[in-house]
Amino acid sequence: MIQLTFIQILTSSLIIAFCLGLVQWLLTKWVSARLEKSIQHEYDRKLEEYKFQQLQRQKAETIARLFARWIKYRGNESTYLNKSELINFYEELNQMSIEISLWIKDKKLLTDIMARLQMKADAKDIRTLSGEIRKLILDIDDKFDPLEIVLWPNPEIEKTLFNNIPKSIKKVK
Fold it and tell me: What are the distances in angstroms from CA 12 to CA 21, 26, 138?
């Protein structure tokens, strides 16, 4: 029969208690680290989503600025701008046109935008293009009718300003 002395029992108990304490401390550290990493990952994910949304807004602003600047003079910019202003106007349009050509992945949409800017007869109107761009940027297929987008001036005022039929707004069939 094995006889244990008080010191052996006490030593064994202390070793077991120490080992259990060590295991508990390690588990606590491990769970704590996992929890911190999980929370950090969630914040990182939300930050990336926020950055992506900001980038989407910037891209949308670029397209809106391009369309707004492009339709401002309805092809009559040389009548209203001096040579220096005209050079700056074209430079700005070129920059925005090139920018959007670099990030729009959808070849058909990009082709439609460029057709509109080239004033091709069969090109989609700006409102329809804006609706398609909205779907691309927001990654949604909503029921918003892009023909509800308001453009100024209205066709009657535009005729008096430019003495011709609006070139920028194609009638939807």
Answer: 14, 21, 66
Of 102, 18, 121, nearest in space to 62 by CA: 102
Summarize pLDDT for 90-122 with one digit per residue, the tens.
999 999 999 999 988 889 999 999 999 888 999
Structural domain count of the chain: 1
DSSP state for residue 119 in the 8-state scheme: T
* Among 117, 143, 139, CA closest to 63: 117
Whether 23 maps to a domain, the answer reads no
CA distance 49 to 55: 10
How far is residue 18 CA from its own chain's centroid? 55
Token pair listed for 89: 């106007």
